Amino acid sequence: MSTNHRQEKIVQWVNSQGRQNLFDLANKFSVSVQTVRSDIRALAEQGLLLRSHGEAIPFPDRENISYNQRIIKNIKGKILIAKLCASQISDYQSLFLGSGSSVAQLSKLLHGFSGLQVMTTNLHVAHNISESSDVKLTVAGGRLRLRDKDIIGGDALQFFLKYRADIGIVSVGALDKQGNLYDYNDDEIMSRQALLSYCRYKILLVDSCKFDKEARCCSGHLTDFDCIISDKKLPLKLYNQLIAAQIIVIHDESSMKNMQQSLS
Questions:
Q1: Side-chain half-sphere of 211: how many Cα atoms within 13 Å?
Q2: Does residue 55 have a pLDDT over 80?
Q3: pTM confidence score
Q4: Residue 108 C-alpha from the chain's centroid
Q5: Could you give the CA distance from residue 76 to residue 78 in angstroms, rounded to a whole number?
Q6: Residue 49 has what pLDDT?
Q7: Could you tell me the CA-to-CA distances from 59 to 73, 86, 148 in Å, in that order?
Q8: Torsion sign (Cα): 228, 191, 168, 253
Q9: What are the angstrom distances between the C-alpha of 153 and each of 74, 196, 253, 257?
Q10: Model confidence at 236: pLDDT above 80
Q11: Domains in the chain and their CATH numbers?
């Protein structure tokens, strides 16, 4: 692997995975620590990464990785999350659907329902749902962020202000050890907050790649939701906190059945 190609891969890896120890990067790219240190120094001088105390750190205002990268990352986990979430939906309900690859995966499963009313600000979601003739679809208009196909900013806010929904379903950019939620820019947070303000039941989809990570913008906590759905069990301390708060936590079919029995 050439130096330029390796450095490009290092930037992609650090931006997607968060801060990285130089020793771990050396192992990842099968080079010496000295070589990685030189790479990080060069990348820092180009303004592509930050370096501090033996670590490579993404810039705090860098965007999330592209949608095409996210849709295939942990795809099996996202498919499981989508199936588990679909089991929480009933015919003839109204849904707010946010952005994100997990929500987009869910939208592919909605063709099996009757009489759903879906409102969304994401064109990937809208495209998937438009294949179904039995779903009434409403899509926001306004300024489009081309990278993710999201309607953003005040346009998204005004869209959700106009409607009310039975269920609001969103994803999130990152989740830290304390259960705090993060995203990569203020537009994503503004849209999510507006969506959650006008639905009766709130579902968060969070795949395990987001566990124990942070991003630039912090807003909200797991306890803001009625139901958390992931592809792996949350850390025990967080899991117990949510159960104590009577929040439904689902990570596989067994946990879903257990929750259903406890509520019956």
A1: 16
A2: yes
A3: 0.77
A4: 17
A5: 5
A6: 83
A7: 21, 36, 20
A8: negative
A9: 28, 15, 36, 39
A10: yes
A11: 3-57 (1.10.10.10), 67-263 (3.40.50.1360)
